[in-house]
Amino acid sequence: MKKPTKTPPALVLTPAAPVLAGGFTIGLDLGNRSHYVCALAAPGQITHEGPSPNDRVALAWLPTKTLSW
User: Fold this and answer.
1) Where do the DSSP E strands lie in the chain?
2) C-alpha distances in Å from residue 69, one per residue of 7, 18, 37
3) Centroid of chain to Cα 56
4) Residue ranges of domains in the chain
5) pLDDT for 43-66, tens place per residue?
6) pTM of the model as a whole
7) Less Cβ crowding at N or C end of the chain, within 10 Å?
8) What is the dihedral of CA 30, 37, 15, 10, to 10 degrees?
9) pLDDT tens-digit readout, 3-44
10) Which residues, in sequence order, are CB contacts of 11 under 8 Å at separation 6+?
């Protein structure tokens, strides 16, 4: 039987993505029947949150809608 170790797990640091003025981030929770979308403005406030249809038209339309939120 393996003895438990007391050393903490390795920590991998990754550089943060640069924040661009006017930029946004889109988070998608993909599902079989529908998706859930959350859009954040560059400072981090939620600009849109809600369900989205599960089809190509809705996903292709998403970036153009996000720019206007």
Assistant:
1) 24-29, 34-41, 46-53
2) 47, 21, 13
3) 18
4) 24-68
5) 888 888 989 888 888 878 777 765
6) 0.56
7) N
8) -50
9) 666 666 666 666 766 656 677 788 889 888 888 988 888 788
10) none
